[in-house]
Amino acid sequence: MIGLGGGGVDGAITSAGGPQLATHRRALPILEGTRGARIATGGAVLTGPGDYGKLFAANVIHAVGPNYLNVQNPEHGDAELRSAYLQSMAAAAEAGIEFLGFALLSAGIFRGPRSLAQVLSIGLQAVCDGAYPGLKEVHLVAHSPQEQSTLLELLRGLAPPTPLERSRAKAAESEPAAAAGRVLAIRCDVTRPEECIAAREAIAEAFPGRPVAFVFNNAGECSNGWLELCCRL
Description:
With 233 residues, this protein is α/β, with parallel strands linked by helices. It has 7 helices and 6 strands; from the N terminus they run H-E-E-H-E-H-E-H-H-E-H-E-H. A 4-stranded parallel beta sheet has the order 3-4-6-5. A two-stranded antiparallel sheet has the order 1-2. It is globular and about 50 Å long.
C-alpha cells in the first residue's frame, strides 16, 4: 500500500508531474490502520484535473500492484494485480478519459517468482476486459527491450478484426456496447513522436470506434522521454 512517490517509475512520474501533482497526492486520505498509506494494494485512485508539469496530462491514475516478494499465495497477488488494472480502467471511465497510458505494474523487481510474461498477461487481459464506451487508445509503455518483446509476443494473441467484425462494429456505432469491443493491438517502435502520431491517426481512421492498445518503447538517453512521449500521444 502506498500513495506518495517512491523510486523508479513512481518517482519519475512524481518528478515530472511537478509540485501540484505532489500536493494532490499528499491530499489523498490516509487509509485507516496504516502508516500513511493512501492506496490499498490492488487499488487505484485518480488525481486531477491539474497542471501536472511535464506530464502533458490533466489526470493521473495512481495504481498499486502487488509485491510478489511479500505475497505468500501468488494467486492472491495475481488477483490484486488484475484489480489494480481494472480499478484504473474504472477510474478512467468515470472521468471520461479517452486516451490512457499504463506503466507496467509489478513488472520490475516486485514480480518476484512470477515471470514477466505472467504479470504482463494479467495486465493486458484486464485492460481488454475493462474497455469502456468512449475509450479510444490504451498505451502500454515498455521501458526495456525485454518488456517490449514480451508484450509484443502476448499481443499477437489478439487477432486483428475480420471484415465481418468491422462491418458489425460500423453498423452498431450508435450502440454504447460497440466501443467496448476487443482492443486492437498495435506495435509502435518509437523513433520520433510525429511518426507515431501519424500512425495513430491512420489506425483510428481504419478502425473507427475500436479501442486501440499501443506498445511503445523508448528507453533512450532521456530517462523521462518514454513518460513524456506516452502522455503526449
